[in-house]
Design brief:
single chain; about 375 residues; alpha/beta; GMP Synthetase, Chain A, domain 3; 2 domains; 4-stranded mixed sheet; 12 helices
Length: about 375
């Protein structure tokens, strides 16, 4: 019986599958960062720059950079592969960089559509738009703190999102918003910094807003990014700074937004849409130069009222800008879609969003005043 059992086990090995298509990492060219630019001479072409780590110990540089011109992503991959003695893969791509011109033309949206069809594309790759410079220049940067531009960009975007200074946009999140009726995508904007020819640094420079056609139509400033997060709740604890006139003097105010509760109601009258946004903002640890009694409820209430008026006006102004861009980046259309589904069906939401009436009311509750420069003795 033992011999029969051994013979049976040996025969089963004939049917066992093996790693017949195994690929060693040394044989792969792992794209970690890719940049996309419009071609200055031919509008049909784009310049694609890809960075891969050099895995060979004999390599002089830590990374390999290749730039090609192509009409499509697929053609660009073929052109890059022709220059590589290894197999090109995109599964490790961490960041995709687009020039502002490329994003405003709508070509970025076309590239994203092509990338979504690639099996090995990293769906969690982060997106960013570079302001006033080609994406190729970002690919060529060698930051003093971190020479690997892909690592530096990843850290820059993730940490600033954690601090509420920008939004985190991945390939998946971009497509979710682009294909969801009633909300449009946003993409972080970066800028190359440094004196003269020594431009080696990168900073977050705002948030690019895209319309339903996939074109970048506007930019939110640093202050407006905070307002965007208040409305969307896409970031954690937010720090704000403001300037309020108290007792005839402009005073700096800073603090943390601990929580935000929002209520959005919509109304349609004579085929005219109205959207009312009601916000309740809870602020903790307010710092202000004011010789007032921090325990006096009137002081706390007065400060809350001033901040509420400030937030309310700024949010209203920001939304009016996005209406002109026909880009509903805060997703108000999703509420309209739910509350008035019959009316919403068949409408061009970009046009309806531009002409609808939006009103904002805000209430600020200051839970605790922190350090005062001149506290009441």
């Amino acid at each position: 019986m033992k011999w029969l059992l051994a013979l049976l086990l040996c025969s089963l090995m004939l049917f066992a599958g093996g790693c017949w298509d195994i690929l060693l990492i040394e044989e792969l060219s792992l794209v970690v960062t890719a940049g996309f630019d419009s071609d200055s001479q031919d509008s049909k072409l784009m310049t694609v720059t890809m960075i891969s780590p050099a895995l060979s110990e004999k390599a002089k540089d830590s990374t390999r950079k290749v730039s090609v011109k192509a009409e499509s992503v697929n053609q660009a991959l073929i052109n890059v592969q022709r220059q590589s003695g290894k197999i090109l893969v995109l599964g490790q791509a961490n960041v995709l960089v687009f020039s502002e011109k490329f994003a405003r033309s709508g070509k970025m949206n076309e590239v994203m559509r092509e990338l979504a069809q690639l099996r090995d594309m990293n769906a969690n790759a982060m997106l960013t738009v570079v302001q006033d410079a080609p994406a190729q220049h970002v690919m060529q940067l060698e930051n003093p703190a971190e020479t690997r531009i892909g690592v530096h960009l990843t850290n820059l975007l993730e940490r600033n999102h954690y601090l509420g200074l920008t939004a985190k946009t991945t390939a998946t999140r971009y497509w979710y918003k682009h294909h969801t009726l009633g909300i449009d995508p946003v993409v972080p904007i970066i800028k190359i910094t440094g004196p003269g020819d020594e431009k080696k640094g990168l900073v977050i420079a705002g948030l690019g807003v895209f319309n339903s056609a996939g074109k970048m139509t506007g930019t939110l400033t640093d202050n407006e990014v905070l307002l965007y997060h208040i409305l969307t709740g896409e970031a954690g604890r937010l720090r704000f700074t403001s300037e309020e006139e108290i007792q005839g003097k402009k005073r700096k105010v800073a603090g943390f937004i601990e929580d935000v509760k929002s209520k959005i109601s919509t109304e349609i009258k004579d085929d005219k849409l109205s959207i009312a946004i009601s916000l309740e903002i809870f602020i903790d640890g307010v710092d202000i130069e004011w010789d007032a009694d921090v325990l006096d409820t009137k002081v706390i209430d007065k400060l809350g009222g001033l901040l509420a008026k400030d937030f309310q006006g700024n949010i209203q102004e920001m939304l009016e800008k996005t209406q002109k861009w026909q880009a509903d980046c805060t997703g108000l259309g999703r509420h309209v879609r739910v509350q008035h589904s019959k009316w919403f069906k068949g409408k061009d939401w970009a046009e309806e969003y531009e002409k609808c009436d939006i009103s904002v009311t805000a209430k600020v509750t200051v839970r605790r005043i922190g350090t005062l420069v001149k506290p009441q003795s």
